Structures are given as C-alpha cells and as structure tokens.
C-alpha cells in the first residue's frame, strides 16, 4: 500500500507551511511495492545469480554479487544511453526555438552517472552568460527566469506530437515537467542554482566507498517501488537518498567491507535512528541535538516564525554536507514509513540469508520492477537502435 499521511491527499508544494499545521504525528507502516501485472519467478529476473555462479561462495558473497548484478541491470544499456542522449538534444532544440538566449544544462543523476535506464532527465535552465553562476539567483533574476518558464510551458503544450503532460510547478526551484512522447521519459526543466558543490561531494563519496553506486541502485529502487521517493508527496528525492546512504556509512562503527554488508547496515541504521531528538551531520560525522540546533536558511527561518509553525519533531534532520543551511529531511514527511519499511526488509533479508538456499536475496527489496519496466525498456532500446541505424 502507498504511504498514508493524515490530512488532504494532495497539497500544492507552495502550501508546504500549511501542511505543517495539520501534520502532528502518525504511525509508520511498512509500505508494499507496486504490483506487477505478473510476478516473475525469482530465477527469471535478469540479475539472478545461477547455481554455477554461487559455487564456493557464502551467503553474503552471493548477496553482494546479486546487488552488483542488479546495478548492471538497472543502468542504461548502450542503446538506452543513445536514446536518452537523443532525447536531451531534442529537448534542448525545442527550448532554443522558444528561448534562443537560454540554454539547458544537464544535472542530477544523468550528470553524476547514477541514472537508471528510465530515470527522469533533469535539465537546468540558464542564460548563456550565467553558465558559471553559483548560489541562489536574486529575486529579480528568478522572476525573470520564471517568466521564461511560463512562456516555455505555453509553447511546449502546443507541441502535442513531441510532449505530453506539460505542467508548470511552483516550488523552491520552479520547474516545467513533461513527458517525451516517443521515449516515454519524464523531463524536468528546472530553475536550479549551480549544483557543482553537491556533485563534487557525491564524486568524493563514491571514491571513498567504491560500492556506493551499486548500493544506491538497490536503495533508490526500494524507495521508488513504494512511492517513497516522491518529494511532492512527502518522500525523499535522489540526492537526499544518496546522502542517507552516505550518512549510514559515515556513522558506522566500522566501514562495511562489501556492498552486501553495507545494505544490511543501511537498513539497520535507519530502522533504529531516533529522528525525534537527534539530527545527523555527514561532514563532520556527528549527531546534534535537534532542540538546540536548527539546520535552516535565514529566509526559511523567518517564514516559519511569521507563520508560527515548526516542523513536527519526528521529521528527519539531515544536514547537507554541500550546504550547512540545507536540511535534506525537511520535506520527508514519510520518514516513519521509511523506517518501518527498513525494519521489515531487514528482517526479511536476514531470514533469507539464514536459509540454506535462497533464489534471490533482493526479491522483497526491489520486488517486481522487472515486469513493470520491461515494455518501457524495450521501447527505449528500439529507439536507440533506430538512432544508431540512422547514423550508418
């Protein structure tokens, strides 16, 4: 079942302060994954580890191997990569036709190399002379750029053969969301500040923990399959999930030696973490008292004081290592569901590891993503193949 929070089913992002008024507390539940049309056998998924590959290995080694195999599956294939890059070029051309003085810069998972085959394409809208701008743009610049976004939305709505579900969203970083018709990929054009600092920290973390990208693939899919990564409904975005993983590793008494142990540690860490009294810092790796330490920008603090509201004490406080004023847990109202889900999946995984023979250790965690994505990925592969043939 999907996460259920008290109050209205849908709340506009710009009414998030109002949301704090009606959320007080709730009971977290283990969230079930999306149902597939047909549940595959555990031996039929592409990341299954055969009996021959298991020979001479213990259960934890097989778990680590399955995680790496899943990581290879969920990433874009060469043809899917061609289709994704072609989509970016076509979107850029569409934007240039409407806003000739603006450009799009790829950011997010596509830039860091963590993108899945069907991940959203995140593109930052910038003026040609603002490519290296850092920090949040001034109010005047943001208003001007937001005006460009609205113009872009109106024009893209007319291109019905190329895009569908075109919508302008008001948020801290306004954006135009849409779906590219031929590939089915979701695209977001965002008024974001430069993300170089965050990206640099992510790259350093992946060097520090060589298995981090493999672990991220499993954990992100776990969130995705349960609706826990939908930021507009109180979930955690890709960057927050990445930093939750890094936080669990940085706060481990001893660094897990392999990705299998790292997954077990992640589930155990977040099942037990006390979000009511403690906040968590990654750099430096320390816990802080939430009652005496607020991770918040000056502007956001003034707004909270003016509205006489404070976040519920159960909310996660996770300090962004790339920006000490940015709390990565401030939108994650579903944190209790996340913790309950981690507790359930940790128990399930341990039980599977105790069995003499288990077909798949990840079956409950990544669930039925294979049949759910099969048609979309075949479609993406076909488009990539068509593009490649056209180049011959």
Backbone structural class: alpha+beta
What would the average pLDDT be, to the nearest integer? 87
What is the overall silhouette?
A: globular
Fraction of residues in β-strands: 5-15%
Share in helix = 40-55%
List how many beta strands DSSP finds. Answer: 9
Give the H and E element order.
Answer: HHHHEHEHEEEHHHHEEHEEHHH
Uncertain runs are 1-22
Count up the helices.
14
Strands of the biggest beta sheet: in what spatial order? 1-2-5-4-3
Task: Give me the Rg, rounded.
Answer: 22 Å
The rounded distance between the terminal residues' Cα atoms is: 48 Å
Largest sheet: 5 strands, mixed
Pfam families: MTPAP-like_central
GO cellular component, one term: nucleolus
Domain Poly(A) RNA polymerase mitochondrial-like central palm: 63-196
GO molecular function: metal ion binding; mRNA binding; poly(A) RNA polymerase activity
Question: What's the gist of this structure?
Answer:
With 392 residues, this protein is an alpha+beta fold.
What does this structure look like?
This protein is α+β, with helices and mostly antiparallel strands and 392 residues long. Helix content is 46%, strand content 12%. The chain is built from 14 helices and nine strands. The strands form two sheets. A five-stranded mixed sheet has the order 1-2-5-4-3. Strands 7-6-8-9 form a four-stranded mixed sheet, with helices on one face. The longest helix has 23 residues, at 369-391. Mean pLDDT is 87; it is low at 1-22. GO terms for molecular function: metal ion binding; mRNA binding; poly(A) RNA polymerase activity. One of its GO terms (biological process) is negative regulation of macromolecule metabolic process. It comes from Polyplosphaeria fusca.
